Amino acid sequence: MNPVVRWFHQLGSPPYFDRFAARWAPWAYLLGLLAMGVGLYGALFAVPADYQQGDSFRILYIHVPSAWMSMAVFALMAFYAAIALVWRIKLCEILAMACAPSGAAFTLVTLATGSIWGKPMWGTWWDWDPRLTTELIVLLVYVGLMGLYAAIDDRRNAARAAGFLAIVGVALLPVIRWSVVWWNSLHQGQTISLFGKSHMDPSMLWPLVWMIAGTKLWFVGSLLGRARADNLRRETGKDWVTKLAGGTP
Amino acid sequence: MSYRDYVIAAYAVFAIVMLWDYVVPRLQLRAALRAARLRVARVASRTAPTELER
Q1: Is residue B54 part of a domain?
Q2: Total number of domains constituting chain B
């Protein structure tokens, strides 16, 4: 068997995943912290103030990566949920549900930092603009999903119900992405493009790249940690968990 | 620095939420391991022979 395919199959085994997560979560956190450290230094001290927004534009170095993570985590959660629903892979249920708290955290940061930036720039903390409103709905879906997962006693049924909500909720992502194009809104249009030309000067762009990399690595650490805890809870009583807890199977 | 208070507030929110995102999985993991250890201890005490049985 192809080693990559074999590794992928092995990763579906709860004890193998536990060892994998225990090994790589601290590295993901550490690398994420280093990348965010470089990004934060650049954002706060290295890049010059914007000629129109002054120093308030420095908030966007945490707002934009958080907004991207908010949507990316939702898409990943729906992807895992779809695999879990079709192929009934338990680990994918665990990973899908472990995505939700981090996704909600990034969405909360997006809304809070956007609001703090909006007060001096727009003159208001909040506006029922399509981009802001859809992002708020995403936060509510994240919270609803976590509530649904916690409300059902049977873990597998709970994960299936919450996973279904995640798959339905993915329809929100294109609305968020294109809201600034479809409607004449207060929120600015696209500034940074992955494949096209960005409207941000390259001298101001590099801290953002570091922050985007850092938040992704941080999320990987958090995802592995949460999934490992849920995996252990579900597998309590199995030989490998007993051995890990210091008992004899 | 212009708008200093807004910048500090935004970065503080980011730092607090990221810290929460770091601490909570560690607490969950610790609780899961403690529950597993308690279960091991419970099972061991149930299977160990009592004074009368010996």
Answers
A1: no
A2: 1
Please tell me which residue of chain A has the smallest CA distance to B6: A116
Mutating which of A55, A115, A212, A248 best tests the B interface, going by the most B Cβ atoms within 10 A? A55
Would you place residue B50 in the very low, low, confident or very high pLDDT band (cuts 50, 70, 90)? low
Is residue A66 within 8 Å of residue B14, measured between CB atoms? yes
Mean pLDDT of A167-180: 90
For the cut 90, the answer to whether the pLDDT of residue A10 exceeds it is no
Instruction: Determine the Cα–Cα distance for residues A12 and A212; give it in Å rounded to an integer.
Output: 28
Neighbouring C-alpha atoms within 13 Å toward the C-beta of A233: 18
Domains of chain A, residue spans: 62-189+202-228
Residue B51 lies inside a defined structural domain of this protein? no
Give the model confidence (pLDDT) of A27-83 as tens digits.
999 999 999 999 999 999 999 988 888 899 999 999 999 999 999 999 999 999 999
- This complex has an ipTM of 0.91
Burial of B19 (0-12, 13-18, 19+ CB in 10 A): exposed
Shortest Cα–Cα distance, A76 to chain B (Å):
18
Q: Is the pTM of this model over 0.95?
A: no
